Amino acid sequence: MRLSTLFFLLPLATAIPKLPRNQESSHAFFFKGHDLSSLKTLEDVGTIYRDTTRHNQTRPADDILGDGGMNTVRLRIWVYPEGGTNGLEYNLELAKRFKSKGFKIYLDFHFSDSWADPNKQPPPAAWPTTLAPLASTLRGYVKETLICFDRAGIDLAIVALGNEIRHGILWPVGHADVDVQPWPATIANFSNLATLYKAARAGVDDALHAVASRPQIMIHIDNGWNITLQQRWFGAMVANGIRTTDWDVFGFSFYPFYGTAATFDNLRTTLNTLAWEYKKPIQVVETDYPAICNGEYNPIPESSEPEIPYSIEGQTIWTRDVIGIVKQIPLGLGQGVHYWEPAWLNNSNLGSDCNDAILFSTDYSNYPQMVGYSRSSVNLFRV
Ligand SMILES: *[C@@H]1O[C@H](CO)[C@@H](O)[C@H](O)[C@H]1NC(C)=O
Ligand SMILES: *[C@@H]1O[C@H](CO)[C@@H](O)[C@H](O)[C@H]1NC(C)=O
Ligand SMILES: *[C@@H]1O[C@H](CO)[C@@H](O)[C@H](O)[C@H]1NC(C)=O
Ligand SMILES: *[C@@H]1O[C@H](CO)[C@@H](O)[C@H](O)[C@H]1NC(C)=O
């Protein structure tokens, strides 16, 4: 069956004229990514991965996940992290390795020395604390970082300016909240964030004069299922002079256990509405699903799609359903899906109340050496 499909497609494919590179990637390429930010930290302490489909052969996690359909690696970058973990050198090393294996690289700026998400956006300790100098430091940091990747031979496919920035970046200066009322107050509340975003975006333009390739610029917000949040957020940014050309692609997080409103229906409505309003590519850039959730440590949280079991099979069903929703976004604007940290053996709950949402079964019997055995869900991108 596969063969006949191929014979049918081949003459067609050769007849299609070659599109310019950026058009080709934005229309045809579908990003299937795994966030592997912690992999080096784990490998550095001797963690190994075994491929259960190859008689438990020891293989790099990225090779196993690559066989499972991954074509992109997402990496978070911190500014001056303790011990260098997730810092510039750490990321250059990982990015070089993944690029040499043919994976695309998606760089996720946190603009922080450690974690940044909707509940915390701590600015780098060494950065200024007032708006104008902070914006100027941010601009220079983005520029220099992108130039370093280029000098290392890494053409970044995607660059996200901030991680889950529903509540802004670089607190307190860049703290924003769509629930500030009435609307003129919302707009005023977003003014500092808009200034900082413009600075980060200008840093990209500064780098473009010096680098070989242009990444897609992403804005990444959590709760991709909440249309009210997304419309107000992007509306407030546009009202503050952010042009719709100032970002290329929407990135959304979508997890099953943060409120039962995180349904597939709500995700579909939100993504499709934004596609019609902004006519811009959309990706789901963080998701995961539990393989094990037995109430051992916390009460079992309800899934927003309760008919999908918490199981290895459920991980594949959930992710493929999300891929289906993204691929059905109108105007062909659905552009990718990324699974969050599938190989993080010693953090297998991935921040949830469940035991384990990663794609490897863990063996701690020789701790501190950790071993991860690939689950069938390592193949969830084989679609
Ligand atoms: C792979 O390792 C697992 C866990 O130790 C074991 O249960 C399984 O039998 C091994 N498979 C093979 C083919 O050796
Ligand atoms: C925006 O509103 C939030 C919530 O009230 C507040 O914490 C933040 O400081 C405000 N931001 C600015 C820049 O005024
Ligand atoms: C969706 O987001 C809006 C804006 O932040 C918020 O007011 C609302 O409570 C959210 N909806 C749900 C169901 O949480
Ligand atoms: C996982 O192991 C690494 C390396 O030993 C360590 O730095 C990190 O703190 C550990 N994380 C957790 C959540 O235990």
In CATH, the architecture is: Alpha-Beta Barrel
Distance between the termini: 16 Å
Number of domains: 1
Count the helices. How many?
A: 11
Structural class: alpha/beta
What is the CATH topology descriptor? Answer: TIM Barrel
Strand arrangement across the biggest beta sheet: 1-4-5-6-7-8-9-10
Q: Strand content of the residues, in percent?
A: 5-15%
Going by CATH, the homologous superfamily would be Glycosidases
Q: Profile the largest sheet.
A: 8 strands, parallel, barrel
* Cofactors, ions, other ligands: 2-acetamido-2-deoxy-beta-D-glucopyranose
Summed over residues and divided by their number, the pLDDT gives a mean of 93
The H/E string reads: HHEHEEHEHEHEHHEHEHEHEEE
| Beta strand count | 12
* CA-based shape: globular
What is the level 1 CATH name?
Alpha Beta
Task: Compute the CA-based radius of gyration.
Answer: 21 Å
Query: Spans with pLDDT under 50 lasting ≥5 residues?
Result: 1-26
**Approximately how much helix is present in the residues?**
25-40%
Summary of the model, kept short:
With 383 residues, the chain is an alpha/beta fold. It has a single domain (33-379), classed as TIM Barrel, CATH 3.20.20. It contains eleven helices and twelve strands.
Structural commentary:
InterPro entries: GH, Glyco_hydro_53. One of its GO terms (biological process) is pectin catabolic process. Residues 1-15 form the signal peptide. With 383 residues, the protein is of the alpha/beta class. It has a single domain (33-379), classed as Glycosidases (TIM Barrel, Alpha-Beta Barrel). The protein has eleven helices and twelve strands. A hairpin with a 5-residue loop joins β2 (48-51) and β3 (57-58). The two termini are 16 Å apart. Residues 1-26 have low confidence and may be disordered. Bound molecules: 2-acetamido-2-deoxy-beta-D-glucopyranose (4 copies). The site of one 2-acetamido-2-deoxy-beta-D-glucopyranose has 7 residues, from α9.
